C-alpha cells in the first residue's frame, strides 16, 4: 500500500490561500488509496491518515475515504473528478469540506441540532449549562420498564458470525436538495457516499453491519411541486416516513430509511429498533454525521445512555450528557458505541437473526421475520479475556482512583481494542464514570479530571467521578473487541467479536487511598538520584495487612510511566525511593520536570497520584551525573538478561575520582540493578534499572470434554432442557464461569443464551455458547373442521357446531365463533356462514369458515370442502419490551374483521351479509400520522330454529320451516375486550376496557414511541377515561395526542390480577 505524504499550510487564519485550489488535493486522493494529509484549519494543520473505502456510487466516479486521528475515527470525505467534500472532527469541533469554483473551502458550523427523545423540556440543549433533571424515581422506572435492557444479574453480550448488509434509502427532500446540496445532483450523491462511508466504518468495526445505498432517483426530490415535507416538525415526518418510502420506491426495495429535509424543530428522531420491524424508514437527521449515527443507533435498537435526559428512553449508564454516540454531548468525537449500547443492539440482532445468504434474497437462513437483510458468514473467532487474575468484585475506600488491566488474546492474531464501561442499567442517577472511547491500551483508568475555568484556574470537571465521601456499588463491563481491522479482512467479512467480563466496584467508608505528601531533596526542590519519601493514606481494613504496592514516576505528566521506583513493597503508607536520574526536563530545561508520582496496589485496582492538575517540579542541578545508563525499565526473557553496561559519572567535585558500585537484587518477576556513585565531596547518587521477565507462553491448553450442548429451537417453555454440566481438561484448578440470559422478542419469541467460560492459571481461556430459541410456530387445532355444503332448504341447515381448540403449548383454548346469513331480494335466506377463531399466547391464529348454501334447485344436498383455506394470521413484528412506535397496523380480513391485538366476534349490522372471502391478511406498514383502529361491536343475528325431519341422503324430506324475523342479540363474552382506537373528535371512541371484575380498580399507563409517559390513571374509568389527551406534566404545549402509543393495563379478572400490553391509536 503506497502512502504519500502531503502537507498543506495556509497563511491566513480561517480562509483558504487564494492561490491554493482543490486540484492538487483531489489528484493526491485519486492516485492513492492511503494518504497522509494534514487538514489546514486556522493557521495550523491536523495530521490525519486517510484510507479508501467502498461506496455504492463508485461507478459514477465517486471515491470515499475515512480519516483517523491517532487511531480514532475522525471523518469521511467524498472525492469526485473535480470536487472534494466531507466532514472531519477534531477536539470537539466539526469541519466541513466543500469545493467552490475549484477552491477547497473548510468551514465550521455550530450545531443547534438535538435528538427528539430529549424534546419537550427533558434535555437542556445549551452546552454551556449543566443541569440536573428533576423527575421522580417512580416515573423513570415505569418509563424504562418496556425498554429492551438487561436484567439485574443476567446478561450476555451475544456474538454473531454474520455480517449483515442493509439497503439504505436516503430521502433527499426538496428543501435539503435546494439548501444543503445547492440544487446540485453531484453534491447530493457526494453527501450520500460520505454518510455511507461513515456508517460503514463505525458499524463495521463495532456492530457488525454494513449499508448499501439505494440508488433510486425517485428518492431525490428536485422540484417544489413534488416536495414530500413542507417545513414539517420531525415527529410528523417520522410517523409518515416509512409510508412515504413505501410509496416512493416500494416496501420490498429497502431495509432502512432516513429522511433529510428542513424542519421547524431542528432535531433528530428515530423509531427504536425498527430496523428489524415494519417502521424501518422512521429515521430523521440533519447533515451532521454524529447526529445521523446517533439516530441510526436508535433504529438499530439502542436507547440513550445519558442521565441528563431525565424521563426518556435511556439506559442511564453514562453520567450527565455522557460520552458515547448514544449520549447527548453534541460532540462529534463521540462516534463510538458503548458496551451497553452494543449489548442492546446485539440482543435485537440475536432475536431477529434471519438473513438471506444471497444478494438476490432467495435463500433464507433462519425463521421468517420482518425486514430480513443480506448476510455473509464470517470465520472470525472471538477474543478471550484472561480471567484468572480478575475478580468478581473489588472494594475501595471513597475518593480513590482505580484502573483495570485487561489481559486478553485473539486466536486469529487480530489487534484488540479495550474498554471498561459502567453498566448499571436502568438505575437513574447511578452513573458516575464516563464510558470512554475504546483504546489500544489494555489499561483503563478512572479518576477525577480537571479543566481551566474562565478565571484560568483549575476546577474539577463535574459528573466524571464520585463525590469525595460517596459510597456505593457500581457495575463495570470490561470488554475487548477485535473490530479494529474493520468490516472486511483480506477481502472476507470480519464481524467484530467481543468478550466481556463483569465486575463490581464496591466503595465503602474508610480512609481514601491518596498520596498525602512527597518530600523534597533540599531547599524546596528535587534532585536527581536522591531520596524522596512518599506518604499516603491506606486503610488496612480494606487492603489487608499483606497488601503490596508499586511506585512509578512519569516525566510527561502521566502520559507514560517509564520509571519504576519500587515494586512489591509494603502498603503501609510510607516509602523512600530514588528520584529518577534520567528524568527529562520540561522543554529541554533540566531545572523543571513535568513529574508525577503514582502508587499502584498490586493485585488490586486502586491507585493514587501525587497531583491532579498539570505542573512542573523544581529541580536542583545534580551533584553527580551518570553516563551510559541503560533504559530505566525493560522486559526480556528470563534467560536472556542483557549484561550490565559500563556506567560512568561526572561531578562538580574535583576531589578524587567518582566511585561507582553496581548491585543486583533478584525478585520473582524482575531483577533490580542499582548503580551507587559517590564523589570526594561526600555526595551520593543512585541510578536504577528494573528488568522485568517476559511472561512465559501458557504451557497448558484447555479443552471441553464430552458432548457440548447444541443450539436448538423449541416450541414450548417446558421443552427447554436443564442447564448442561460442562467439564474441561488440560490444567489444574480449572474454573468455569456460567452466564445465562433470557431475552424476549416479537410474537412471544425468546432467546436463551447460555455461555460457559473455562480458565485456569497458565492457560488460555476457552468458551462455549449455546443458543435456544423458544418460539411457538404452531397454530391451535380445532376439534373438527365442518365441511361446507349445499342444501335444498333452510331447514336442512345444520346447527353451528360447538368446537373446542387445543394448542401444543397452551392446552385447551377458548374459541370465538360467529354466525351470519345472506338473504335474497324476496327476503329468503340463501346462505349461512359459521366462523370459528382461536389464537394462542404466541399469536398463532386459526380461523375456519363453514359456508352452507341454500339452493332449492338441487335434488340432492351436497357437501363440499370450503373453497377458503384456513389462514394463519401472522401478527406483525412487535418488540414488546421496547417502547417504540409500534409496528402493527390492524390486519384487514373480510368477514369477519379482526383487529389486533383484541380479537372478538365481528359486527353484523343487518341480516344481509356479503359472501365470505377470506385471504391471508395483508399487513402493511402504516403511515403512523393518523391510524384509525377500533375494535368492532360484537353482535350475532339469532334465527329461530325450524322444525326439521331427518332427511335421507337421496331424497330428503323437509317440513316447511317457519322462519321468524332475525333479531340481533349479543353473545356471552367472558374474555376481556380492549377497544384501542381513540379519536379526539368523537366522544364515543375512547380507550375502553370491558369484562373485567366489577368494583375492582383498573390501572392504565400509556407511553409514546420513545418510551415517554403521556398518560397514567390508577383507577381508570372512575370516572376519567383516555380520550386522546395527555394528563402528565412532562408533556409540554398542546395536550392532544396523535399517532401510535403503547399501553400497559392491569386489572382483575375472576379475582386474579392480570396484565396486558399493546398498542393504541389516536387521531
Automatic annotation (TrEMBL):
Keywords: Signal. Residues 1-18 form the signal peptide. Residues 864-967 have a biased composition (Low complexity). Residues 864-969 are annotated as: Disordered. GO terms for molecular function: metallopeptidase activity. It holds the Pfam family CHU_C. InterPro entries: MetalloPept_cat_dom_sf. PANTHER family: PTHR21523, SALIVARY GLUE PROTEIN SGS-3. This is CHU domain-containing protein.
Amino acid at each position: 500500500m503506497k502512502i504519500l505524504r502531503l502537507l498543506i499550510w495556509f497563511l491566513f487564519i480561517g480562509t483558504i490561500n487564494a492561490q491554493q485550489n482543490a486540484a492538487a488535493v483531489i489528484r493526491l486522493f485519486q492516485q492513492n488509496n492511503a494518504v497522509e494529509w494534514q487538514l489546514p484549519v486556522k493557521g495550523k494543520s491536523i495530521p490525519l491518515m486517510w484510507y479508501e473505502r467502498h461506496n455504492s456510487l463508485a461507478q459514477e466516479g465517486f471515491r470515499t475515504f475515512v480519516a483517523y486521528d491517532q487511531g480514532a475515527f475522525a471523518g469521511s470525505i467524498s472525492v469526485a473528478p473535480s470536487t472534494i467534500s466531507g466532514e472531519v472532527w477534531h477536539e470537539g469541533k466539526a469541519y466541513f469540506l466543500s469545493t467552490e469554483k475549484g477552491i477547497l473551502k473548510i468551514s465550521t458550523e455550530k450545531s443547534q441540532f438535538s435528538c427528539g427523545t430529549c424534546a419537550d423540556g427533558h434535555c437542556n440543549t445549551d452546552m454551556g449549562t449543566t443541569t440536573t433533571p428533576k423527575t421522580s424515581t417512580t416515573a423513570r422506572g415505569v418509563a424504562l420498564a418496556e425498554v429492551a435492557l438487561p436484567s439485574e444479574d443476567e446478561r450476555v453480550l451475544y456474538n454473531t458470525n454474520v455480517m449483515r448488509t442493509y439497503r439504505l434509502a436516503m430521502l433527499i427532500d426538496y428543501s435539503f436538495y435546494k439548501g444543503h446540496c445547492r440544487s446540485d445532483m453531484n453534491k447530493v450523491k457526494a453527501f450520500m457516499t460520505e454518510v455511507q462511508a461513515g456508517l460503514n466504518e463505525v458499524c463495521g468495526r463495532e456492530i457488525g453491519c454494513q449499508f448499501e445505498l439505494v440508488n433510486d432517483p425517485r428518492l431525490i426530490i428536485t422540484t417544489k411541486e413534488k416536495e414530500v415535507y413542507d417545513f414539517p416538525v420531525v415527529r410528523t415526518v417520522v410517523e409518515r416516513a416509512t409510508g412515504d418510502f413505501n410509496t416512493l420506491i416500494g416496501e420490498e426495495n429497502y431495509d432502512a430509511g432516513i429522511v433529510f429535509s428542513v424542519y421547524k424543530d431542528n432535531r433528530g428522531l428515530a423509531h427504536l429498533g425498527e430496523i428489524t420491524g415494519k417502521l424501518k424508514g422512521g429515521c430523521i437527521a440533519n447533515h451532521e454525521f454524529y447526529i445521523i449515527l446517533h439516530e441510526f443507533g436508535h433504529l438499530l435498537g439502542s436507547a440513550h445512555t445519558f442521565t441528563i435526559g431525565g424521563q426518556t428512553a435511556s439506559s442511564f449508564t453514562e453520567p450527565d450528557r455522557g460520552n458515547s454516540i448514544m449520549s447527548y454531548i453534541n460532540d462529534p468525537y463521540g462516534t463510538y458505541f458503548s458496551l451497553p449500547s452494543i449489548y442492546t443492539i446485539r440482543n435485537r440482532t440475536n432475536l431477529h437473526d434471519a438473513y438471506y445468504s444471497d444478494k438476490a434474497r432467495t435463500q433464507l437462513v433462519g425463521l421468517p421475520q420482518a425486514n430480513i437483510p443480506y448476510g455473509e458468514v464470517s470465520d472470525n473467532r472471538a477474543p478471550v479475556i484472561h480471567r484468572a487474575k480478575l475478580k468478581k468484585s473489588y472494594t475501595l475506600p471513597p475518593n480513590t482512583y482505580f484502573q483495570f488491566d485487561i489481559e486478553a488474546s485473539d486466536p486469529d492474531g487480530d489487534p484488540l481494542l479495550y474498554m471498561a464501561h459502567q453498566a448499571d442499567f436502568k438505575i437513574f442517577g447511578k452513573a458516575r464514570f464516563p464510558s470512554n472511547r475504546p483504546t489500544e491500551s489494555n489499561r483503563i483508568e478512572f479518576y477525577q479530571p480537571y479543566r481551566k475555568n474562565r478565571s484560568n484556574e483549575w476546577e474539577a470537571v463535574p459528573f466524571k467521578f464520585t463525590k469525595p465521601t460517596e459510597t456505593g456499588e457500581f457495575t463495570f463491563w470490561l470488554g475487548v473487541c477485535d473490530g479494529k481491522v474493520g468490516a472486511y479482512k483480506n477481502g472476507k467479512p470480519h464481524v467484530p467479536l467481543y468478550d466481556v467480563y463483569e465486575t463490581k466496584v464496591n466503595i465503602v467508608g474508610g480512609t481514601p487511598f491518596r498520596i498525602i505528601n512527597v518530600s523534597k531533596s533540599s531547599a524546596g526542590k528535587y534532585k536527581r538520584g536522591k531520596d524522596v519519601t512518599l506518604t499516603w493514606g491506606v486503610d488496612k481494613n480494606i487492603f489487608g495487612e499483606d497488601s503490596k504496592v508499586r511506585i512509578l514516576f512519569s516525566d510527561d505528566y502521566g502520559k507514560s510511566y517509564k520509571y519504576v521506583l519500587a515494586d512489591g513493597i509494603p502498603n503501609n503508607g510510607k516509602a523512600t525511593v530514588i528520584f529518577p536520574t534520567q528524568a527529562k526536563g520540561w522543554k529541554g530545561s533540566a531545572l523543571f520536570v513535568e513529574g508525577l508520582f503514582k502508587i499502584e496496589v498490586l493485585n488490586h485496582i486502586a491507585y493514587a497520584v501525587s497531583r491532579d492538575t498539570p505542573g512542573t517540579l523544581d529541580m536542583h542541578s545534580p551533584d553527580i551525573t551518570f553516563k551510559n545508563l541503560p533504559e530505566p525499565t525493560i522486559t526480556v526473557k528470563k534467560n536472556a538478561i542483557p549484561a550490565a553496561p559500563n556506567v560512568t559519572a561526572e561531578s562538580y567535585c574535583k576531589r578524587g575520582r567518582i566511585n561507582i558500585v553496581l548491585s543486583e537484587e533478584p525478585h520473582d518477576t524482575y531483577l533490580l540493578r542499582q548503580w551507587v556513585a559517590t564523589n570526594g565531596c561526600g555526595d551520593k547518587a543512585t541510578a536504577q534499572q528494573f528488568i522485568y521477565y517476559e511472561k512465559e507462553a501458557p504451557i497448558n491448553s484447555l479443552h471441553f470434554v464430552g458432548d457440548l450442548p447444541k443450539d436448538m429451537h423449541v416450541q414450548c417453555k417446558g421443552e427447554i432442557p436443564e442447564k448442561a454440566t460442562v467439564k474441561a481438561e488440560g490444567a489444574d484448578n480449572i474454573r468455569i464461569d456460567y452466564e445465562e440470559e433470557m431475552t424476549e422478542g416479537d410474537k412471544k419469541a425468546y432467546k436463551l443464551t447460555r455461555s460457559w467460560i473455562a480458565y485456569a492459571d497458565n492457560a488460555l481461556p476457552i468458551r462455549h455458547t449455546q443458543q435456544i430459541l423458544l418460539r411457538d410456530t404452531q397454530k391451535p387445532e380445532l376439534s373438527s373442521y365442518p365441511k361446507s355444503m349445499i342444501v335444498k332448504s333452510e331447514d336442512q341447515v345444520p346447527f353451528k357446531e360447538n368446537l373446542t381448540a387445543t394448542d401444543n403449548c397452551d392446552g385447551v383454548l377458548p374459541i370465538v365463533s360467529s354466525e351470519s346469513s345472506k338473504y335474497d331480494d324476496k327476503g329468503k335466506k340463501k346462505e349461512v356462514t359459521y366462523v370459528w377463531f382461536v389464537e394462542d399466547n404466541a399469536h398463532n391464529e386459526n380461523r375456519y369458515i363453514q359456508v352452507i348454501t341454500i339452493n332449492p334447485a338441487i335434488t340432492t344436498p351436497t357437501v363440499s370442502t370450503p373453497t377458503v383455506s384456513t389462514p394463519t394470521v401472522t401478527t406483525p413484528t412487535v418488540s414488546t419490551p421496547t417502547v417504540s412506535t409500534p409496528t402493527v397496523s390492524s390486519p384487514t380480513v373480510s368477514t369477519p374483521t379482526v383487529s389486533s391485538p383484541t380479537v372478538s366476534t365481528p359486527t353484523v349490522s343487518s341480516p344481509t351479509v356479503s359472501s365470505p372471502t377470506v385471504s391471508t391478511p395483508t399487513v402493511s406498514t402504516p403511515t403512523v400520522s393518523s391510524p384509525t383502529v377500533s375494535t368492532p361491536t360484537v353482535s350475532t343475528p339469532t334465527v329461530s330454529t325450524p322444525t326439521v325431519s331427518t332427511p335421507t341422503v337421496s331424497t330428503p324430506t323437509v317440513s316447511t320451516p317457519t322462519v321468524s324475523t332475525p333479531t340481533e342479540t349479543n353473545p356471552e363474552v367472558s374474555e376481556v375486550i380492549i377497544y384501542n382506537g381513540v379519536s379526539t373528535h368523537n366522544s364515543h371512541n375512547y380507550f375502553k376496557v370491558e369484562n373485567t371484575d366489577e368494583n375492582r380498580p383498573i390501572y392504565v399507563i400509556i407511553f409514546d414511541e420513545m418510551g415517554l409517559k403521556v398518560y397514567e390513571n390508577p383507577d381508570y374509568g372512575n370516572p376519567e377515561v383516555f380520550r386522546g389527551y395527555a394528563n402528565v406534566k412532562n408533556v409540554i404545549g398542546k395536550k392532544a395526542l396523535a399517532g401510535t402509543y403503547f399501553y400497559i393495563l392491569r386489572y382483575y379478572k375472576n379475582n386474579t390480577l392480570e396484565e396486558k400490553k399493546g398498542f393504541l391509536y389516536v387521531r
